[in-house]
Design goal:
Number of strands: 28
Organism: Sphingobacterium zhuxiongii
Protein name: PD-(D/E)XK nuclease family protein
Pfam family, one: PDDEXK_1
CATH superfamily of one domain: P-loop containing nucleotide triphosphate hydrolases
Strand order of the largest sheet: 12-9-13-8-14-15-7-16
Structural class: alpha/beta
CATH topology of one domain: Rossmann fold
Number of helices: 36
Strand content: 5-15%
Helix content: 40-55%
């Protein structure tokens, strides 16, 4: 590999100055190359010497001023106050902070650009009305420049400006005064900024115009795109024999005027007249024939996954390596994909992608609700986010207590006064702000507590501490700015805080001379590596297809020589090409998927190099073939080993009960039965904002039991007229039962949340419907049994492995009653309440008594009847199903679809016998070791089923078979 650029600089420094370098200044565009040049100087000199003084260009030029650098936030507030003052003078309404913030960012950026390029402020914002004025005002401009200015003003010369044009022109006229007042304000505060320093120096108005005299020589290393101020100063210092320039270039793009990569260095040398200390540059690119590896990936994240494998294969500690991010949005997925941790990351890790911002943003969301909107309750999701956040460190016991209580009460809204997170890093996280002025102080306290937490746990990580310190610095600046603005609303402050925090990022520092280096392309200036991996080498990203927002239209930028999109292309081309001069192993990655954020094409720079040079571009395409397994990957549980031991010991030896719902669960899906009743997998407690039918059913059952319990004490029939009084109190009893279900006490409907009110309405209507049905259909009623959960357990003999064993059947009896019809008949009934879509009709009994039965309700009711009759000794119970949705139309007796078969009298007796045979055969299948637990692919799977994932392949297999 050719010698690194900074190695050549170090050798030239030794040749020119020998050991006399202590009073030399070395100036770079950024800090990163300083460490590398120091290392090369050590390698070249091979002895201890006094080091030269190193600066970035901004640090170097700042030596001309003693003023303090104004922060970005401070500049914004100065601009905001001045601008609103001007609006007041014009009789216009003031801008709000949030409205002005994005405008201020553009204005400050434009002011900076105009300063850097020494543009006359009053000149560029001059308002012109005709071509004659343009020719007079800009007679020193070229015809082409004058043409650009005419094109700009032509759009405003049409009669009748639009409202947008009028607003723009008002701002345009205001900008020169705003610029002047802004500079005066900074001066009065004893502050400055870099653009002001540049202009003052170039105009010879700095505090210390001759600051360079303190150095014997100033070496400017690796500069490329110079603004007009830099070009003027560099030329001046070169003429004074104070400056030496080291340009990192290659003849391939420098000598060819059509090569955009050499645009700026050609300007520096041929237009500005700066001399390259290296003299003529070599043609390295034109003479290389190395392989360049280009990887086409199927998605942005896939680029980092491909890189993972390549890094493992290419790892060589004897070589320097760097990952360059053309798309810096790939930093986070890259960090998650690195195969080793010995890395140094200069690219800033953004605050908004960190857990820190997640916690701060959560606090701001909470305060908007409870302090700005005066809400007494917050959504449970906000509390859950805090409980599970890695930096809140809520004590495990306290977290589990809150989660379990909230799940039991189904509190999808939490009363703020009831939230107790005292055993966490931020015990006052959900406390309402006493006043709006406490927004930023409270956030600063949160930041301090997080820093303290990291220190106490003896695990301060550099990135977290850096982000927290930068956040605190910005918050303090905002606090100072807010102090002069009077009363501000909480939401107003939070909106601006979010904008101010969004640009914060932190470098993840490691050893810059060892291990894998990660940086953006711009940060790689002057640096060379043996192995280079460039991520995001897509057209539209390399180069970018858009510039930053500006109030300076493109035509005016061209007229005044300000940076335009073509300049960005030239800079990107240079940053990309220069790595081909030095690196021996170059790997490029791009996303081939076409979507709204990706062209799906490799960068045109790759195609240009492929066409213009002798590099051998070896291209790879990520392959992800679809695989179709020959056998479905179905979950099947064999009844052997521990599985059989658990099944047999639980239900046979230890007498674990089989309920009607467990039985129908097996009919629907043997795999579901295994998961629920053998493996004992329980669904974790959760908060649901969807209506829960199981809770509705419980409320209805409990309400009916309370209303009918007084009848149980009566030994004889009671007129159903007695039930009419219960209709009057049904609503209140339902309210009480909802409170019991959610472990709360409700005194009025107003105490319920929205879903509970829906539940109350439905449950009340269902209960009244059940009661009214009994009043309408029967003359009198006698209650035999109500909601008995203890007494109805039956030992049922079945054959297991040729041996008679017994299983314990368990029936929860909703209601057994005896009714007197209006025609004088009496009936002994077993009643089951249903709140879902169950039905009393069926096609035929063969379909009912079958796996995956279409009428679980009938099977369950016959199950209850069988257990009750066997335990109680009563016979001839009629199974009745109270389905509120259909009972008025269909009645409560089971019948087939055409009504020819009704489960009563002799027919019922026959079907009960058939059911017992079906029950026995099914249970014997359950305990047949040759029949595994597997899902029935034709079974209906409800969205609320927590085991859906276990059925996945069975259901898919079924879909294929159905086709």
């Amino acid at each position: 590999m050719n010698k690194a650029f900074l190695r050549l600089v170090a050798e030239d420094i030794q040749h020119r100055f020998d050991k006399d370098i202590s009073d030399i200044a070395v100036v770079f565009n950024n800090k990163r190359p300083i460490t590398y040049l120091k290392k090369h100087l050590v390698d070249v000199y091979q002895q201890a010497i006094w080091s030269p003084q190193f600066y970035t260009i901004q640090e170097f030029l700042s030596l001309s001023s003693s003023k303090i650098q104004a922060s970005t936030i401070s500049q914004f507030f100065y601009l905001y106050e001045i601008h609103n003052g001007m609006l007041a003078q014009e009789g216009l309404e003031p801008e709000t902070l949030e409205e002005f913030y994005p405008i201020a960012e553009i204005i400050l950026s434009d002011f900076s650009q105009l300063d850097y390029d020494l543009v006359n402020i009053s000149h560029i914002f001059l308002e012109l009305s005709d071509n004659t004025e343009i020719e007079l005002a800009f007679q020193h401009f070229t015809p082409e420049q004058q043409s650009f200015i005419r094109q700009f003003w032509q759009s405003f010369s049409i009669q009748g400006h639009t409202s947008v044009q009028k607003r723009f022109l008002r701002l345009w006229r205001r900008l020169p005064r705003l610029y002047q007042a802004f500079k005066e304000r900074m001066h009065s505060e004893g502050q400055t900024n870099y653009p002001t320093i540049y202009r003052d120096l170039a105009d010879a108005k700095a505090e210390n115009n001759n600051f360079v005299d303190q150095f014997k020589q100033v070496l400017f290393v690796g500069f490329n795109a110079l603004n007009n101020a830099e070009a003027k100063l560099f030329k001046q210092w070169q003429e004074q024999e104070k400056a030496i320039f080291y340009f990192d270039a290659d003849a391939h793009y420098l000598d060819d005027k059509l090569q955009e990569a050499g645009l700026f260095i050609r300007r520096n040398i041929y237009q500005s007249g700066l001399t390259n200390a290296f003299g003529d540059v070599p043609n390295i690119l034109g003479n290389r024939r190395d392989d360049v590896h280009v990887y086409q990936s199927l998605g942005k994240i896939s680029e980092t996954k491909l890189l993972y494998d390549l890094l493992l294969k290419n790892q060589d500690d004897s070589k320097t390596s760097a990952i360059l991010l053309a798309d810096e949005g790939l930093l986070v997925p890259l960090l998650q994909s690195l195969p080793f941790t010995d890395v140094n990351i200069t690219t800033g890790y953004p605050l908004i992608q960190s857990p820190i911002y997640g916690l701060l943003d959560l606090w701001m969301n909470v305060q908007i609700l409870i302090s700005q909107q005066n809400k007494e309750k917050i959504p449970y999701q906000l509390l859950e986010t805090y409980l599970t956040h890695p930096m809140s460190k809520v004590a495990k016991q306290q977290r589990q207590l809150i989660q379990s209580e909230s799940a039991e009460k189904q509190l999808f809204e939490i009363d703020v006064k009831d939230i107790d997170v005292s055993r966490s890093i931020l015990p006052h996280f959900f406390r309402k702000l006493p006043k709006a002025e406490q927004v930023i102080p409270s956030l600063i306290t949160i930041v301090d507590n997080l820093l303290l937490s990291l220190a106490e746990n003896d695990r301060i990580r550099q990135i977290e501490s850096n982000l927290l310190m930068e956040t605190k610095k910005v918050l303090n600046q905002l606090l100072l700015g807010f102090s002069n603005l009077g009363q501000l609303s909480i939401g107003f402050q939070i909106g601006l805080i979010r904008k101010a925090l969004s640009p914060i990022s932190s470098a993840i520092e490691g050893n810059p001379l060892k291990g894998l280096q990660i940086m953006g392309l711009l940060e790689s200036r002057c640096l060379n590596f043996d192995q280079v991996y460039i991520l995001g080498a897509n057209e539209g990203i390399l180069p970018k297809t858009s510039n930053s927002p500006t109030f300076l239209p493109n035509n005016l930028r061209k007229a005044y020589g300000l940076p335009i999109l073509e300049n960005q292309d030239a800079l990107s081309a240079y940053l990309f090409y220069r790595h081909f001069q030095y690196s021996s192993d170059i790997n490029l990655f791009y996303n081939a998927v076409v979507n709204e954020s990706s062209s799906g094409e490799e960068s045109r720079f790759i195609k240009q190099l492929e066409f213009e040079t002798n590099f051998n571009f070896v291209k790879y395409t990520q392959q992800q073939p679809l695989q179709f397994p020959t056998q479905p990957q179905e979950l099947i549980i064999s009844k052997d080993g521990e599985i059989w031991n658990k099944l047999y010991s639980s239900f046979i030896k230890n007498g674990k009960r089989i309920s009607a719902s467990a039985f129908t669960s097996y009919l629907q899906s043997p795999l579901q039965f295994f998961l629920k009743y053998v493996a004992d997998i329980k669904e974790p407690p959760s908060i649901s904002q969807e209506f829960e039918m199981n809770k509705l059913g419980t409320v209805i059952h409990e309400t009916m039991e309370e209303l009918l319990t007084p009848l149980k004490a009566a030994n004889d029939f009671v007129s159903t007229e007695w039930l009419k009084d219960k209709l009057e109190i049904a609503e209140q009893v339902v309210l009480k039962q909802i409170g019991n279900e959610y472990l709360s006490s409700f005194n009025a409907i107003e105490d319920l949340n929205s879903l509970q009110r829906i539940m109350h309405k439905i449950a009340t209507e269902y209960v009244k419907m059940y009661l009214q049905y009994d009043i309408d259909q029967y003359q009198a009623i006698r209650i035999v049994e109500l909601e008995n959960t203890e007494d109805y357990i039956l030992d049922f003999p079945i054959s297991i492995n040729g041996k008679i064993e017994t299983v314990s059947l368990y029936g929860i009896i909703d209601r057994v009653d005896e009714v007197l019809t209006y025609d004088g008949q009496t009936k002994l009934r077993i009643v089951d309440y249903k709140t879902g879509s169950d039905t009393v009709s069926f096609r035929n009994m063969d379909v009912v008594f079958a796996a995956n039965t279409e009428n679980k309700a009938l099977v369950q009711t016959l199950f209850y009847a069988f257990v009750y009759e066997q335990v109680s000794g009563l016979k001839d119970l009629e199974p009745h199903l109270y389905v509120a949705r259909r009972m008025r139309e269909d009645g409560t007796l089971f019948r087939n679809n055409n009504g020819s078969l009704v489960l009563s009298d002799q027919t019922l007796s026959e079907q009960k016998e058939a059911f017992v045979a079906f029950l026995r055969s099914t249970l014997e299948e359950l305990f047949d070791q040759n029949v595994p637990f597997k899902h029935n692919p034709s079974a209906t799977v409800y969205p609320s089923d927590p085991f859906t994932l276990f059925y996945k392949y069975s259901v898919k297999e079924s879909a294929v078979e159905d086709e």
